Amino acid sequence: MNKKESRLKRARRFRARNQVLGMTRLVVNRTSVHTYAQVIKCSDGKSEVITSVSTVDKALRGKISGSKIEQANMLGKEIAERTKKQGIEKVSFDRSGFKYHGRVKALADGAREGGLVF
Questions:
Q1: Strands, sheet with 92-94, edge to edge from the N-terminal-most edge strand
Q2: Are the beta carbons of 62 and 93 closer than 8 angstroms?
């Protein structure tokens, strides 16, 4: 089993457990260049994207600067702001099988600073 398959296996395990609980989740994905975050609401077996942000968004390009970790922290604050506008304050953090350090941790810290509760 290679590195990617191991990560996807961890992600599937978390999502299966979260599906039983039916909680809204904050999903993080990262590539070598960009970071993405989505808030997904799971209800009755259906998943619906509530809001999303990424380093690719044209609206955020002017605001986001600095290192990738600083960008991820800003994305966390932005996703928290957008999510709270939708009336959601409590989410489950889905790191998609990535290790909890670097950009993933910075995004989570930014979302907590923005007011989301994990």
A1: 46-54, 35-43, 25-30, 92-94
A2: no
Helices (DSSP H) in the chain: which residue ranges?
A: 3-21, 68-85, 103-114
* Residue 117: φ, ψ to 5°: -115, 130
Q: What is the pTM of this model?
A: 0.88
The tokens describing 12, both together, are 């599937």
Reduce the DSSP state of residue 76 to 3 states and report it: helix
Can you tell me the distance from the alpha carbon of 81 to that of 71, in angstroms, rounded to the nearest whole number? 15
CATH 3.90.226.10 fits 3-114, yes or no: no
pLDDT tens column, 70-117: 999 999 999 999 999 999 999 999 999 999 999 999 999 999 999 999
User: Tokens 């998943």 map to which residue?
Assistant: 47
Asked if residues 41 and 24 have their Cβ atoms less than 8 Å apart, the reply is yes
In degrees and rounded to multiples of 5, residue 22 shows phi and psi of: 70, 25
